[in-house]
Design a protein that fits this description.
The structure is a homodimer. Chain A is of the alpha+beta class. Chain A has two domains: 86 residues, Arc Repressor Mutant, subunit A (Orthogonal Bundle), CATH 1.10.10; 169 residues, GAF domain (Beta-Lactamase, 2-Layer Sandwich). The first copy, chain A, contains eleven helices and eight strands. In chain A, the strands form two sheets. In chain A, strands 5-4-3-8-7-6 form a six-stranded antiparallel beta sheet, sandwiched between helices. Chain A has a two-stranded antiparallel ribbon with strand order 1-2. In chain A, a hairpin with a 6-residue loop joins β6 and β7. Chain A is globular, with a radius of gyration of 21 Å. At the A-B interface, α1, α2, α4, α5 and β4 of A face α1, α2, α4, α5 and β4 of B.
């Protein structure tokens, strides 16, 4: 690599990392396949299914699948002719949870927080394309039936109290874009809000109060109380939320939960 | 895709999945980068370091890194200009541990097994190129200092009691190849065996007894007791092992451990 080329690499490294033009299609396909196989409904797929769902040719899929299988990122079962996640992802995920700044500290404290709140608590991350994923969760040790969620659960859109905690800190232009997208797709969340104004007000309140509460927004019967976790640069790194049954939500209890979550978030500020 | 092409895809799908000719170089590079960033020593690397260690050009690395960053498989820190593992791997690894056949059941039982044995127990997987990786581990709840290992720890070669539990069930041609490789590289394990014959005898014993014991083979001062976990087709799927200090190993205790491990392995037979 000569000096000119070198300089160009350095320049592009500094520009936005979200530029699709710099994507390697086969690596993007590999990630799509892993995401597909990480959903319960599609945890075991044939080559044909993978090709259909990823909109890539069978030949291309097969080559990517083989490469992933060699590294044990996925497995191929000769009898069922199905692909599924591979065991190498287990230690890789474990290492990530130790190495991603702040996450391991927070994960260690989640069980204690769940005991304190008396409900399931979750640590959520925002993914590209307006999705939210459960990074970690903890449930209190009581024997009562309660709301639960699994690690890796994806929530499409930025709905619910936790989605709002991410969206509220975006620029208002992102709010507008999000509202238009929701109404265009007839999204469940859009139907929960009588108008664009009430939706904006909810986002403004979330931003002012630094917390959000939602009832039945992501799924009927479930409520959520959420607070943002700030990075040292002031951006929202993750969201900390409580998941509970709407029938067990009372306003006083909700306020107490927000207080606990916010105290915790304050202690964790800048960890990420 | 026409019928001919289809047929060719199906045929190649059935042939060995280890054929390098079918690899997609950028996907292989993506996996190498993730593996590199999952080691403690190289958990945070600049583009230059990644390019050097993966033997790929900066331009190629940058494009792969960008693609991985978009999916949150890795993260880029603008201040340090370093790449590290991304948070999306956490839920992905979690899903894999639930979905990889048998692993979640086994992981749930490991803590109880550790209590029973009184030492750290590990679940190990064989990776391509003769390495063994710790998929899961559990330590007993006593407060005594003990041997420990971290999840994701890689052991090169197929040494130690656990490596021998994998190698013993390979064809003798693989034994010979392994012995030649070890002696050629002046491997620690080769030095532990006075001759090729004693090494073969140890493998034959492992195969006959269905268990292995090693002292100081992977690291001085550490002993290991291991048994193979068989898949329903009779192949060795994983290895279950106890890690302890050689100074705390006594033959009677070792025999008791083998008994416990073998009873557990028998219960788990065919789970994988």
């Amino acid at each position: 690599m000569d000096r000119e080329e070198m300089k160009s690499v350095e320049n592009t490294e500094n520009s936005a990392t979200t530029d699709v033009a710099y994507e390697v299609p086969s690596v993007a396909l590999a990630m799509s396949i892993l995401k597909l196989l990480s959903r319960y409904k599609t945890q075991s797929c044939t080559l044909t299914e993978i090709s259909k769902r990823t909109h890539a040719s069978k030949t291309t899929c097969l080559r990517v699948l083989r490469t992933l299988a060699r590294g044990d990122f996925i497995r191929y079962d000769k009898v069922s002719r199905c692909y599924s996640l591979g065991a190498y992802l287990i230690p890789l995920g474990n290492r990530a949870s130790q190495m991603v700044s702040g996450v391991s500290e927070v994960m260690l404290e989640l069980p204690r927080l769940a005991e304190k709140v008396g409900e399931t608590v979750m640590l959520l991350e925002r993914l590209p394309e307006d999705a939210v994923i459960v990074l970690a969760k903890a449930a209190p040790s009581s024997e009562v039936a309660r709301a639960d969620v699994s690690i890796g659960q994806l929530f499409a859109g930025l709905g619910g109290a936790f989605g709002r905690c991410f969206l509220a800190y975006d620029a208002p232009s992102a709010w507008r874009k999000h509202w238009m997208k929701m109404t265009a797709t007839g999204d469940r969340v859009a139907k929960m809000w009588s108008s664009q104004e009430t939706f904006y007000e909810a986002l403004e309140t979330t931003r002012r109060v630094g917390a959000a509460v939602s009832h039945g927004e992501m799924a009927a019967g479930f409520s959520s109380v959420a607070v943002p976790l700030f990075a040292s640069d002031g951006s929202v790194a993750l969201v900390l939320a409580v998941l509970l049954l709407t029938s067990q939500y009372q306003e006083e209890r909700g306020k107490a939960m927000i207080r606990i979550l916010q105290q915790t978030a304050e202690r964790w500020r800048g960890l990420f």
